[in-house]
Design a protein that fits this description.
It holds the Pfam family Glycoamylase. With 557 residues, the chain is an alpha+beta fold. The protein is built from 16 helices and 20 strands. The longest helix is centred in the first third of the chain and has 19 residues.
Length: 557
């Protein structure tokens, strides 16, 4: 039996032995975890501009630099180049800065005006097996193809071509029963009263340009006027916004907008009066057309739309909802023609008091501020959408026209120049805006419709905005027309002229045509070239009287 002393000694021996083993340098240790690494810098074609790049060439060089040398074997599985549809694009890669920078370049040329995304996942590893801290996405969009898409012709020939192709919307695509203008190229039986007024002026232009014969134009207009007389629903002489082109029944524009639309009726009457003045022949067919136009024109009860004799006109009336929409027609916007025609009526005229109080709001429609150094007489800040200066002035000649509220030549020209300068200055940074690509107005937009303007800039350009401003900004508009046709024509030019709108930022091009956008193109080009429609409308004796009664002054009155 061990003594107590031996037991103590054995205990200390075992304790020392245990301590030695636990501190043995030969024991197995876990491998240290490699530190993660970070993205350092990016350059696309030698420049850094965040992670979004527009207008790049079709074979860009992208350099991505990191805080560590990369594991080359991890690149192919963790760096991808794809188009917007998710299709992979083959690329080549090389390394710089001791493998801390990777250089990516597409193997083949990318497509023009197309979006691509370069993805770097956090599965990318360094040479020491460290992981990338944060994934990276670089958005790339290639530039437009700057080559001419069509043979270069003279400006005069180009204007004729645009008018002729745009006219086809109203001629080839007019409703087969009524002859009236479909609202848009997907509208089926829905025709538009206001757009048909623009279409009537387009037909007059087409006859004058020898696109169609006078006899064919007269036959089509007779069909249209007969339909408006015999089939189309009217309310106190006014037409609805939309009509069924086969039956003449109202096609509601909205729930309560299922009756009269006085402003749309104004555009229709504007066109009819132009046609009446143009078809001045003594034969029975032209005389019959004039008589029916006069009956429609004299049947509009303009003064009734004052709603209980208020000193303003109201836009809508419904047989079901009466005046519930309660929208008075007041300036400044596209509806000047409504008050001019109301004052010009021989049967239901309105007074200057209605014009002053309702339209001019006793001067409240004045602006007077300057934008980009250009003074704007009337309307909202920076002018609003450009159709304000188109719809009424398809027929009313603004040159030399004035009243107590404005010089209308200055109004139309300056509004167009402000719109132009806004796009050139491009405060919203929308890709593609330039001195050859401008024009904000109401049009289709991706997945919808909106009245684009400097105060509502969605990055969408509508060809009708700049082209229809040719009488106001001839140099700026012609430069843009050339750009639309020659540079974007493969995407923007179709069976009925220029498509409705586009965005180079998206990029997106509409496939649609709208009557109220196509009509001003052909009509305002004609006013720029010959003043044809202006001269015809301003020759109406009742228009001369009505405008003088409102206080307008013009060498054309």
């Amino acid at each position: 039996m061990l003594s107590n002393c031996k037991i103590v000694l054995l205990f200390f021996f075992l304790l020392l032995l245990s301590c030695k083993k636990s501190g043995d340098n030969g024991a197995v240790k876990p491998d240290p975890v490699p530190e993660s690494f970070s993205f350092n810098s990016l350059k696309v074609n030698g420049n850094f501009n965040g992670f979004n790049y527009y207008g790049i060439n079709t074979k860009p060089v992208v350099k991505l630099s990191f805080s560590k040398a990369l594991d080359k074997n991890s690149v192919s599985g963790n760096i991808s180049l794809k188009d917007a549809a998710g299709n992979s694009v083959t690329y080549s890669s090389s390394f710089e800065d001791n493998d801390a920078t990777i250089v990516i370049q597409p193997a083949d040329n990318l497509l023009f005006l197309t979006k691509y995304n370069l993805f770097v996942s956090n599965g990318l590893t360094a040479a020491d097996k460290g992981k990338l801290q944060t994934a990276i996405t670089v958005n790339l969009q290639t530039a437009i193809d700057s080559t001419d898409k069509f043979p270069v012709i003279s400006d005069d020939e180009l204007l004729t071509l645009v008018q002729k192709q745009t006219f086809k919307y109203f001629w080839d695509f007019g409703h087969p029963v009524s002859g009236l203008a479909r609202e848009r190229n997907t509208s089926g039986d829905i025709v538009t009263s206001g757009g048909s007024g623009f279409g009537i002026m387009a037909i007059v232009t087409a006859i004058n340009r020898n696109f169609i014969s006078r006899a064919d134009g007269l036959a089509r207009l007779t069909t249209m006027v007969n339909f408006l007389t015999d089939k189309a629903q009217k309310f106190h002489g006014a037409f609805p916004h939309w009509i069924n082109g086969a039956t003449g029944a109202v096609q509601p524009f909205s729930e309560k907008d299922n009756g009269a639309d006085l402003v749309e009726t104004s555009y229709l009457m504007e066109g009819l009066l132009v046609a009446r003045q143009y078809f001045n022949g003594s034969d029975t067919q032209e005389a019959a057309l004039r008589a029916k136009i006069n009956a429609l024109w004299n049947g509009v009860e303009w003064s009734w739309f004052r709603k209980n004799n208020e000193n303003t006109l109201y836009w809508h009336w419904s047989p079901n909802f009466n005046w519930d929409m309660n929208m008075s027609v007041k300036g400044w916007n596209e509806a000047l023609i409504t008050y001019i025609l109301g004052a010009s009526s021989a049967t239901y005229a309105i007074s200057k008091e209605v014009y002053d109080n309702g339209w001019a709001q006793n001067g409240a429609m004045k602006n007077g501020n300057s934008y980009f150094g250009i003074q704007l007489p009337l309307g909202p800040p920076q002018g609003g959408p450009l159709f304000f200066e188109h719809y009424s002035f398809l027929a009313v000649n603004p040159n030399g026209l004035s009243d107590q509220y404005a010089d209308y030549q200055q109004q139309t020209v300056n509004h167009a120049k402000i719109n132009y300068q806004y796009c050139v200055t491009n405060p919203a940074g929308n890709y593609g805006y330039s001195n050859s690509c401008w024009g904000l107005t109401a049009s289709d937009i991706p997945n919808g419709y909106s009245a684009s303007a400097p105060g509502n800039d969605l990055g969408v350009i509508a060809p009708t905005a700049a082209i229809s401003s040719l009488p106001y900004t001839p140099e700026e508009s012609m430069t843009t027309l050339r750009f639309f046709y020659y540079k974007l024509g493969d995407k923007l030019w179709g069976d009925y002229g220029f498509y409705d709108a586009f965005s180079l930022k998206e990029p997106w091009f509409a496939s649609s045509y709208l009557a109220i956008d196509q009509g001003p193109i052909i009509c305002m080009i004609e006013n720029y070239r010959s003043k044809l429609l202006w001269n015809l409308f301003m020759s109406c004796p009742e228009v001369k009287t009505g405008m003088k009664n409102l206080g307008f002054q013009s060498p054309n009155l």
